[in-house]
Inverse folding.
């Protein structure tokens, strides 16, 4: 994936300089250069105030849920042990009823565990979406202030900001539609 973005970046740079030689509207001479920056998204997640708050709150929530799951696991274990001790002396009807109750509790534990894992994933992706939205605005502002033309993500391949003057789409369309 990284090779793809490096190749894409190379093509963008090559295309920009190629068009500058052919078209006077696109000016990229030898004295000009494209400034590229990198942002470490993982570091932003772990070191930003919003990221630290999320991690702290998520940790508390996860610990609460894990305590509930642990309590339910203990109940299931106790039921299973009690059932295993008594199953040989229980009446068949009572034994079937107890086995059914145990099966229900095991399934309930599995459902709650799966629900918990899904909740964690949903909360995590919502947080990442929210922080990415904030991050993209900040990246654009800082890139414009510092004069960067491209900003790439360090930890996950992707373009986070591109100066609109580097967009050559209309030039490509013009050439393709000749």
């Amino acid at each position: 994936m990284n090779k793809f973005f490096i190749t894409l970046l190379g093509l963008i740079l090559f295309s920009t300089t190629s068009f500058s030689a052919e078209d006077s509207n696109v000016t990229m001479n030898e004295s000009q250069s494209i400034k590229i920056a990198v942002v470490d998204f993982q570091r932003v997640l772990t070191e930003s105030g919003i990221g630290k708050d999320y991690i702290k709150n998520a940790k508390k929530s996860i610990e609460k849920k894990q305590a509930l799951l642990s309590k339910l696991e203990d109940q299931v274990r106790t039921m299973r042990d009690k059932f295993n001790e008594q199953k040989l002396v229980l009446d068949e009807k009572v034994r079937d009823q107890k086995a059914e109750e145990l099966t229900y509790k095991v399934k309930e534990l599995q459902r709650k565990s799966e629900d918990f894992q899904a909740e964690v994933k949903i909360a995590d992706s919502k947080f990442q979406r929210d922080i990415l939205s904030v991050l993209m605005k900040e990246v654009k502002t800082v890139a414009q202030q510092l004069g960067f033309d491209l900003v790439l993500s360090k930890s996950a391949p992707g373009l986070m900001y591109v100066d609109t003057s580097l967009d050559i789409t209309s030039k490509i369309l013009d050439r393709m539609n000749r």
Remarks:
- Residues 4-30 have pLDDT under 50 and may be disordered.
